[in-house]
Amino acid sequence: MAFFLEHLTGIFGVTIGLEVNPQQPKSKVGFYLRDPTLPDVLNAIVKSAPSYRWREGDGFIEVLPLEGSSPLLDTIITNFRVNDVDQAEAISQLMNLPEVQAGIRAMSLNRRDPSSTSTEKKGEKFSMSLEGATMRQALHKIAKESGGRFWIFRRDKDGFFSISNSPR
Q1: Where does residue 70 rank: exposed (0-12), middle (13-18), buried (19+ CB within 10 A)?
Q2: Is the predicted pLDDT of residue 84 greater than 70, yes or no?
Q3: Ranges of H-type helices in 49-97
Q4: 3-state helix vs strand vs coil in the chain, percent to 5
Q5: In the chain, is it the N or the C terminus that has fewer CB atoms within a 10 Å radius of its CB?
Q6: What does the pLDDT look like over 9-64, one tens digit per residue?
Q7: Cβ(22)–Cβ(68) under 8 Å?
């Protein structure tokens, strides 16, 4: 599913975030559509993978588990600014914010080293600023501004999580 969603970003020119269901980390989807709209495709994906749902907000698409979504992604970011960074660098700086670190500690999570979970694509350098946004919104904005247009959050049953810009 992750590779398919990443491919949709180029076809439809949208930014998509995927929160992987820790109970079903590898979801295969299959369907046939003729001349579909983006909502048609997203509806077919969640019909094929019924433990997921999709939603749209602020010009971004998010695919997330029906149950068990991580509250870490709903952490409110007071102030986030990055200058002349790529997507991987921006995500790293986001993870080091005090409110994100507090959420990680409160939920007894451990961040898996991004270099061990995927081959990070560098993407374009960008600068951005956000205030009073959720971590989800920050990840969407980072993905859009970098030109990568995709992010993925994986949480393992063992308490580790990773955020990357590639399903690999």
Answers
A1: buried
A2: yes
A3: 87-95
A4: 35, 30, 35
A5: C
A6: 999 999 999 999 887 767 778 888 899 999 999 999 999 999 999 999 888 999 99
A7: yes
